Amino acid sequence: MRKAKVLFKNEEAGILTQHDDGSFSFLYHDDWVANNRKQSISLTLPKTEKEFHSKYLLPFFYNMLPEGSNKQVVCKLNRIDREDHFGLLMTTAKNDSIGAVRILKLED
């Protein structure tokens, strides 16, 4: 299992998890949900206490990944398997992302 912190405007909003079976989940932190001034990170991931599950990387996060030749270069330079979407996301979205969301590896 691998986990990453999901930051929205540099504040931790929740946790993205890749489970051992390859599926994914995203869960907002309780304090994020309880605070009316905090918004959801995406229209497809509305602010709720329920956990979002998917067999594949959730579309919002998948769309943050580089494509084409950019993906090839990032994977080669960082020795990441092209099919390791979670690893690619943690590598590219920690600093270089469009918008307010960043992804940081959660240390155990």
Automatic annotation (TrEMBL):
Q: Which InterPro entries match?
A: HipA_N1
- Where the record annotates domain HipA N-terminal subdomain, the positions are 5-103
Read off the Pfam families from this record: Couple_hipA
Its protein name is: HipA N-terminal subdomain 1 domain-containing protein
In which organism is this protein found? Belliella aquatica
